[in-house]
Amino acid sequence: MIPVSKPYIGEEEKQAVMAVLDSGMIVQGPRVAEFEKQFAAVCGTKHAVATSSGTTALHLAMLAHGLGPGDEVITTPFTFIASVNSILYAGATPVLVDIEEDTFNIDPEAIERAITPRTKAILCVHLFGHLCDMDALQGIANKHGLALIEDACQSVGGTYKGKVAGSFGTGTFSLYATKNVMSVEGGMITTNDDEIADQCRLLRSHGMRRRYYYDMLGYNFRMTDIHAAVGIAQLNRLEATTVKRQENAAYLSARLESVVVPTVREGYEHVWHQYTIRVDGGRDRDAAVQQLADNGVGSGIFYPVPAHQHDYMRKIVGDLTFPVSEKAAAEVISLPVHPLLSQADLEKIVAEVNKL
Question: Measured on CA atoms in the order 308, 312, 314, 318, is the torsion positive or negative?
């Protein structure tokens, strides 16, 4: 079976972890600080704040912006559920709007229509590695005085008009094992705002600025030096692995004929966390997934149920309909695109997908 994703773990990661274990400094320490410095450099931001997961990064970003009960945050229903949950964790209300069909990303025109006096922020999701329309989103945020928070969990290194994901507003990243840069588990917040960075650092460590002195209610959302050591090794090969993902995606797009291949808009650099096709024309997507599996090609469905259709979310947002998101959820299949694919793997993927 060709796996849909596979962590790239080499000698660099193994040696980095052993060095931390041998040092005796295994909790948040110098490796975390170094990882933050390097991550900020990649994103072109003044600050990067490491956390225990992408979910906790999102949660802290909400809190650092002062979002809470009575506030509305506009986001997309076609995303991993942590995007929406992070708004709820802060006590704010998620306001969902539909997506653009070609990129799977939030529709700026739908955002404009959803703004109310209670709207305080936009949470945009750079899904699968393709950034949102950031000129439009920044324009809306500036016009209405809204915070702009980027869920860039799948898009490290991706760009829009030469500017890197996580540098447009407050960026949040996941470093989960399947991501383009992983630390086994972890997250990162990026910002150019000194106050936001300070709030995130306080909140991730029990509100503690000086040992055993607490400025505010906080959390234990810290990253360990073990995880940071893995992340640094991963970050050092990000450029090479991104190029390989892009080459793999180009190979697939040039040869797949039986499905709708992903869009890459002009002026965007897609980093291909997922290579997501659409099985359209009313065909049975789940049967297609099973056919691929029966013939040795792993795949994933990200995401089969939009956020608004989960029972607990219906109780919060009501019985809503988002036609573009719902259509995407019924048609998408993500194929292997990771940098460890061989030429034979790519040829097999093409051959099997074209039989659908």
Answer: negative
- List every span in the chain annotated with CATH 3.40.640.10: 11-97+105-236
Given this structure, which CATH class describes domain 238-353?
alpha beta
179 a catalytic residue:
yes
**CB contact burial 277-307 (16+ within 10 A = b; e otherwise):** bbbeeeeebeebbebbeeeebbbbbbbeebb
CATH 3.40.640.10 fits 11-97+105-236, yes or no: yes
Point out the catalytic residue in the list 120, 179, 244, 315.
179
For 58-83, what is each residue's pLDDT tens digit? 999 999 999 999 999 999 999 999 99
Compute the distance between CA of residue 352 and CA of residue 356 in angstroms, rounded to an integer: 7
CA–CA dist 276, 267 (Å, integer): 20
pTM score, two decimals?
Answer: 0.97
